[in-house]
Amino acid sequence: MNWRTKTLDQILATAEEKALHRSLGGFQLMMLGVGAIIGTGIFVLTAEAAQKAGPGMMVSFIIAGSVCAVTALCYAELASMVPVSGSAYTYSYAVLGEIVAWLVGWALILEYAVAASAVSVGWSNYFVGSVERFFNLDFPDLFSKGPHVGGIMNVPAAVIALAVTGLLILGTRESARVNAVLVSIKVVALTVFCILAVPVINGANFEPFSPNGFLGEISGMGIAGAAASIFFAYVGFDAVSTAAEETRDPQRNVPFGLIGSLAICTIFYVLVAAGAIGSIGAQPIFNPDTGLAYEPGTRELADACMNTHNAEQLACSGEPLALVMDAIGYKTISGLISLAAFLALPSVILMMLFGQTRIFFVMARDKLLPFNELLTRIHPKYHTPHVVTIITGLAVTVFASFFPVGVLADISNSGTLFAFMAVALGVLILRVKDPDRPRPFRTPIVWVMAPLALAGCAFLFFSLPFRTQLTFFGWAAIGLVIYFLYGYRNSPVGREVARQANK
Known about the structure:
Elements: H1 8-17, H2 26-37, H3 40-43, H4 45-53, H5 57-81, H6 87-95, H7 98-135, H8 155-170, H9 172-197, H10 222-230, H11 239-242, H12 250-280, H13 299-304, H14 308-311, H15 320-327, H16 331-344, H17 346-365, H18 372-375, H19 386-402, H20 405-433, H21 446-461, H22 466-490, H23 492-501
Helix pairs in contact: 2-9, 2-12, 2-17, 4-10, 5-10, 5-12, 5-20, 5-21, 6-7, 6-20, 7-8, 7-16, 7-17, 7-19, 7-20, 7-22, 8-17, 8-19, 9-12, 9-16, 15-16, 17-19, 20-21, 20-22
């Protein structure tokens, strides 16, 4: 009974009952993807990757990007076949069964909500830096940092999370227009960074290349641990598939948006990482007592970064790209990079919140969540799922106010990787189970690509810090309790199965 599935035809029919308005074209969808991908991962988490892997984070970027590339091909096939909201949750419902779909949807809630919180914290770093740089003010740490580094509450992070929530309520098309402007700012900023940083690369700054080794002596460290963290820099392309139901000609435009946005971002990441490492170096900060690198997001590293000798290291910066520009003599450009990140990172928060609310909406539409009638309400004027948007926005605000960016990113990655594994497995099962169904986009050499995606995601999941893995399994356990107390009993699919069994 737990493995009951919802056919693709049923999914498409359900979507028509409470359909969202189709207003997005192919270019808008690709820009939404670029907007979701380029953000905290490259603007902020470059510092965390430096602490975990040193210059070896170049390999981390390649590993994470490769896993995302093969996964994107799997996503594109399923998204073109099932052009409705819900992303991996919807696909899993059709292929792997309701209980797996629930776990995937529950994991996606973790991915998007916590990711939006992480980006809000990253934005706060650049906001505070811009305020202090341009207005010569000292923004109090008590109200710009979480308790993990001696603050009380990250007020800027909370404010931006609430502001983006308000924008999303106004409408998908309006959000996409704002997003296109913000994406342009990010692309220009990263282009300028590459033009100035790449020519001054010094090969000596890449030595030692892997100071913490490949796996690291501490869980979540080394090149593998950095790849698991920097994976966050690529997450977002899957948010494109959550917009399938609001896209014109989704069979063509969704694969275009998925693959196009990932290709653009990968090129930028490799150039930016090389420029940052080669121009000023990227060695970790070590604990002199143990000889091991401090773990990112800890009070110990924060205290070590207060040391004058460490303060200007890449691993200690909340604004790593601005720091690079400043260090190589482009102080004005440094300020502009910081300003660009401050202006543009809200587009990532927007897309993370967008993805979260659409997953929430579809799970409620399938009657797997309590208060589903309330959660599936669509605003009469703005035509958006405003109730789930408000609930999500408030939750994101709380996480952004009190938790460090690196910890939030890792937790988000755990949910993402689980969902990605379900997508890769679903493609293979559907090729066997329903080989004749039309596939506007087909994953090339699928029996190679999908297993590579599965193995790559599993490797990155178990390269995350052990505490992050435990957090994910705890979240999954909570989800199962909710499912069996409510969703299992109220699912229309389950009731239909029971009705057929009692005939």
